[in-house]
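Sequence decides. Our protein:
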Amino acid sequence: MEVFPLILLLIILALVGFGAWFLVRDQKNITRLRKERDEIDLEESRVFGFLHALGETSHGSPANRMHKEIVEGVSQVLNAEQAILYLYNEQSDQLVPAAQTERIPPILPVPKEVFLVEGEKDQKTRYRSFIRLSTLGIDDSLIGSVFESDQPIRVDDLSSLPSFQGGEKGHYQNEVPMIGSVLLHGPKRLGVLALTRDAGQAPFSEKEAVVFASVAEQSAFALGSAITQAEAHEKRRLEQELNQASEIQRFLLPERSPNLRDFEVAAHYQAARILSGDYYDYISVDADRFGVVIGDVSGKGIAASLIMAMCRSSLRSRARDNLSPASVLHELNRSIFPDIKGDMFVSLLYLILERGSEEVTFSRAGHEPPILFRKATSNLELVESPGMAAGIDNGNAFKRVVKDHRISMQSGDILVLYT
């Protein structure tokens, strides 16, 4: 009879023990889950805070502010001490450092020059400057490898990489974890975002790599959008300036054709682009003579329009009372030659109409020969004459080739000048 109560007591104690064990275990699980939940909440808070700050800087902020926001925000999200942002320069085919955290990530092998100064503080300062000023090639650096990869790259210890072997390490690169990702905006590679932790700290985990890939993607989107907006703004500004320049250029052309007693003059002008190198003008030489000039600067756009304006000013200043078109073109060539690049030139045709005369005097500086329609025979003549373009020779050869040429016109004849 006494055995049964003892067994019952033992069973009750066992059940209580198991219950207590389960209770403690569940309490530990609850504590662990709460800790994980708090960590997730904190991580989400960091991510959302980063995205909010990134969104704030995406609207009208200077580019360097966005760059700084990216490196500081991502380092906080990943609980990393150092971050750096490189942007790709298409012209040089290099990665250029755009922003870094206050603590520079030891992302490059330490050059021996760092240790030419004494004292750890001075060495760190020199290494910091080295990181900030070093542009990187795509094929000869760890960052270049990250740039060409479509996935984030994790390195548990930078000093274990071949490119970091054999050089000086000092206090900077022993057991340094690193993670980096290319920044993609559509098919375009914008640059690289890289993070490091202090030496000896835990490497970046798989979970952190997923988070990092996400924030790197958002950073790339913000950067790409900002670049697109800046390019659109710059394009609008340039178009506005070009339109203004086009209006100014049109002011340099004659408003109307001259009213002459013995000749009828008409013109039509149509630019191939907003700015043009085509040019024509009417010039009063003296009381009985009137000049007509047509020209074409090689190429189009701003450079051609500036050369055209230069030619207009030079010719107008030299044509007054000068009865030789060739002489005027000689002086014009001499004045513009020093200011024209080697791959540019100007073709010109300048003629003088004289009151009461049937003769037209002209000189051709490499321009298309005029076309003459004879009313009496209904024939077309191409009026050939020697000539070379202005801006090619400094004067001697140009002067030998460019001469005055005379043609006779009858009533009803038509002379066509064109570009």
Q: What stands out?
A: The mean pLDDT is 83. DSSP finds eight helices and 14 strands in the chain. The first strand starts at residue 82 and ends at 89. The CA atoms of residues 183 and 190 lie 5 Å apart.
